[in-house]
Amino acid sequence: MSGIAGFSVYTESLTEEKYLWMALARRMARRISHRGPDDRGAHVSEHCALAHVRLALQDPENGLQPMTVHQGGCAFTIAYDGELWNAAELRRELEAQCFHFHTSSDTEVVLKAYLCYGEACAPRLCGSYAFVVDDSLRRLTFLCRDRFGGRPLFYSLQNDRLAFASELKGLFEYPGLAPEVGREGLCEVLGLDSVRTPGCAVFEHIQEVKPGHTVLFDADGLRDREYFHLEARPHLEEYEETARTLQDLLTEAVACRLDDGGPLCAFLEESPGSELAAAIAAKELGRRGRQLCAYSFELEGFGAPLPPAPAWENSEESRMEELSRALSADHTTLVCAADTLGDCLFEEVIARDLPGIPGRESLLFPFGRLIQKRHRAALCSAGAEELFCSSSWFQSGFDPSRFPWPGMSSLWASLLKPELLQLLRMEEYAAVRLQEALDSCPVLRGEPAHSRQMRELSYLTLTRYLPSLLEREDRCSMANGLELRSPYTDHRLIQYVFNLPWEWKCGPQKNLFTELRKAFLPKDAPKPEGGPQSGPSGPEYGPLLKQRLTYILQDSLQPIQKLLSPEAVKQFLAGPLPSDPLTASALIQVNYWLLHYGIYLKL
């Protein structure tokens, strides 16, 4: 994983003041240097400046970036962030077309795929990536992002100049770009429960390259094109054949994420997806004569490990230790105190450049720093619940008038100033965004009403909730120089599972996820009890956050007071403050976001 920054302009030349422009590109990249602590580089051509910071997992000596290849007297330069899972296959395909390779880095594979196929290279890539190509032959800049938003890429087009960066903080180094937030941005933060609309970057004059999209910029302007969209297809396989296909797809998804400097460690948490991914990884590494390193997490002052581990009869070991032994894994339990995790609320805002509803990704700060000392990448289970429809909202039924996941929009509606509420019209905004998403959902002709509703619910989860989850995990892990890889976000697996019969994904009689666990987990592996929690809570953590929130709400100079109704705040403080840490966390993060970035509200 790495970081990208730079800018392009086709109405003038950058070569006369090359070192000035290179300094600016480097300054933009320096703001995101945590994404690439191993190396950095910069490139300036006639119309494009690129800077790159690198976390070197593949070919550290030869995979330096920006990487330039010359063909037909023209230069093609790439700045790339991510991992390509079909690099070997694509390399062979390109070699058959007389392309030669000088490194083992997948950066060169992506660049030469662009040379061969142009913008049509995007559908051929399988991985988690974002990249920018400076194409001097066609005199254009090409931006591309993976199908589900595993790697970030933002841009801003003003005065015929395109600026871009992996994170928003990199763009704020570009002259003329400031952290301004208007009505739309505030609705995204307060009204959509921390799940952003694809392409919306919250800040004024800044957009995000949408997942599964490319962006082309040249003298004629900017063009946004979609290259991937989930498809509705009839599922024709029988149940047993489907189970075997799923086993093959998931095994391949795990195995390719262990290659080329991949993770020798995995997160082992009290969730079926985590245990399944770790079991497959342990088996695959065992075949290669290597042992899986597994980490589980425990929080001091929270009353129990997170999530709660059951007490095992006649055993003093935790269930994670017992499971690790069954997998022959080298297991380590990491411990974090409540006050340390409370401080991570502020670190998360800085990492994401946005507030949110802190969840389990908050753990990536205290634990990620410890893991990064031994490992540069880790296998995780992000997307498992969303893919196999085990998130809580799949069990409660689908209300097509609102987004299904729980959030804080009702809290903000009760606390905001009446005039601000009237201006924002958050419910109306959310309804429009929801309808946009539902209108883009693919369906089968003649599909029964209930199956169609569940398809729509799955589509919302995979195209709205999952990218936001991946965004939070990317920022929180990369803030500590740790790359996360999840097999459940493989687009081939997601496309296949999206079209499976609903009753096979979560039915009591036939359940394909249960079949996967039977196929890969050892028979003596302890069974899980309960499901994963959305975030930390406990006897010390809750009071800590309430204390901090009380201080903020009693201080009239805190920036959040510009949004809140004084009468509503008085009533809020007069009653018992909520014991739910998510409520306090949301208010604390929004206040710190406004304060730290000095945000100008353009309302």
TrEMBL record:
Domain Glutamine amidotransferase type-2: residue ranges: 2-220
Keywords: Amino-acid biosynthesis, Asparagine biosynthesis, ATP-binding, Glutamine amidotransferase, Ligase, Nucleotide-binding
UniProt keyword annotation of Nucleotide-binding present: yes
Gene3D superfamilies assigned to the protein according to its UniProt record, in alphabetical order: Glutamine Phosphoribosylpyrophosphate, subunit 1, domain 1, HUPs
Pfam families referenced in this protein's UniProt entry, alphabetically: Asn_synthase (PF00733), GATase_7 (PF13537)
Pathway: Amino-acid biosynthesis; L-asparagine biosynthesis; L-asparagine from L-aspartate (L-Gln route): step 1/1
EC number(s) recorded for this UniProt protein: 6.3.5.4
Coiled coil stretches, renumbered: none
Reactions that this protein is recorded to catalyse: L-aspartate + L-glutamine + ATP + H2O = L-asparagine + L-glutamate + AMP + diphosphate + H(+)
GO MF terms, alphabetically ordered: asparagine synthase (glutamine-hydrolyzing) activity
Family: Belongs to the asparagine synthetase family.
Protein name (database record): asparagine synthase (glutamine-hydrolyzing)
Organism: Neglectibacter timonensis
